Structure formats: C-alpha cells, structure tokens
What does this fold into?
Amino acid sequence: MQLKIYNEIPSGFETIDLDYIHTLIQGPCLFHLKGERDDALFISTLLHGNETTSFSVLQQLVKKYRTEKLPRDLIILVGNTEAAEKGRRQLPGQVDFNRIWAEGDTPMHHFADEVIEYAKKQNLFANIDIHNNTGMNPYYGCVNVMDSHFLQLASLFSKKIVYFTEPHEVQSNAFAKLCPSVTIEAGRSGDIEGIDVTYNFVEKVLHLKSFDDAFDFNNVGVFHTIARIRIHPEANVDFDNNDNTSSDISFIQDLETKNFSYLPTGYHLGYLKNPELLRVYDDFGVDVTHHYIKLIKSQLITNQMFIPSMFTKNIDVMKSDCLGYVMEKLNPEHFL
It folds into this structure.
C-alpha cells in the first residue's frame, strides 16, 4: 500500500457524517497542512474506526483554519475510514491500525513504515494520537517515555497520566522516538465534553512555543500499567454478579466504575467458573494471575490492592483486546 499525501483537506470535510467518510477520503492517508511555523504537530484520527472524538475535533479545526492561518504545520494521519463508516474498531480480516507500528510484514505494517519515514524528514514538534474507550474512565493522557516534555504534553490534556510500554506496537510509541508523543483517552465516543476538552487541548499545543524543561512532576498523578487482564474469546460473560449464572463469568454490574480507584485486597469482582478463562499477563507476557486474582470457591477476588483502568462492559472489546489494565501509582521520586 503506497502512502498517499495531500496538502489540502477536501471540501465538505467539516460537515460530512462518518457514515460516508470513505466516499470523501479513502484512508489511510496523510494530510500535510502548512502553517506559520514548520515545527509540525502530528495528529492521528480513526486508527480505530469506532473512536470518533478525534474526527469531531479535526472537523472543528478544519472549519476554523479554512479562513485563518495555522500557527504551525499540521500533519493529519487518517486511519481506518472503511471501519469508521461501519462504526467498527476494525473490519473482519483487517489488522488493528494501532498495532502496526512495530515489526510486521502486512501491507499495513509497510504503510506504517512509510508514515514513519515521512515523519522523520519533518521538523516535528509533537505527536498526538486521539482515542476513546468503552468503559467509564476519566480523561487521561498516556506516554511511553518518562520525560519532562512528554509529561508536560500529556498534562495539558489531563493531570492524570498513564505510563505504559505494552502494547509496544502503538502509534504513540513509534513516534516517541521522533518527538514528544502522547495518546489521549478522551472518554467515550461522541461525548460532547470529551470533544470540547480535546479540541481545547489541541489548540493549546498548536500555539505552544516550546516545552518547559523545568516541568513540575508534583503537579500530575502518574500511573504505570504493569499488567493486562485477558478474557478467553469463547467465554460467555454477563454482569449480573450471579453465582448461579449460565455464563462462564458473571462480573459485578458496576465493574467499569472502578477505573482509576484503588481496589483493596479481597474485593469481590464477580463469579468465575473456569480460572483458565480469565488470565492476567505482565508486560513480558508472563502469567501473573495469582498475584492479582484468586478464586474462593467460584468467587473472583482481588489477591492484592491494585488500580484498574479501562475496565469495560463491552464484551467484544474485552475479548479482542482486554478487560482492562492493572496499574500502580508512581511517586515523583520514581522519575525525578
């Protein structure tokens, strides 16, 4: 797949419904828009077709800067427009567009390589990859490098920052080698407040002159993802918290409200019939289930205190990706 690069946004972009986006833009592709400064802001949209905040934000930006000069160059990576038309993360047979930014030999991996090579030739100021999640989470930014410029960039969006190294195949991690880079988790798709918060954040970065080398780490809360909770793709799941359920796993009803809160040791998460259907893996792929989860009869109980993120009640997402992540909170001395 050859990289397509355009220097202007097509007419109608500001108003088109995502149901028809592939008729206007046949992604994936790049748009490189010139601004007053050549230190470019790189933004990704629709790497997951059902995560729409990024597109809504870019529609507002394009509408504004049709008649105004951009403060700096803006490079837009448009991702999976085919899946976006169907409201899907990705279509059957497609690779995940946010898992192609490392080694691989598919046409989309080669496309990602071309994007990176193009980006290397630019004067990049920052990279923003905008995503949504399906569970109830606060707005937060994710970084792959513990660096003051990266943390400052993330803090302009939220004082909650997550540091992760896995999955390593994501776009933000690839671009972390080129410039300060962040993944934005802007709540659920279509959330108006999330769109507004993200739009204001992008505007701040567009106008930001430089990053502060003396950034105060004490002004943010930094969390570190240390494990991922996986659900077997053939497991039957419900949220009835019922030990007599016909499902394999019956979670508590308010599971997703636990995100970014401390779960104490011995906390009841539901019922599990077969322990092999729910496993916890650390960043090295090692099964660490027993560190975090135990079964008392069929009760699913936390085995130590931890902080979850991205707990979701979307069964398709939990099976194709994960139920959520295990985090720890870092103190400033960890990274000063």
About this structure: The mean pLDDT is 95. Residues 226-324 form one domain.
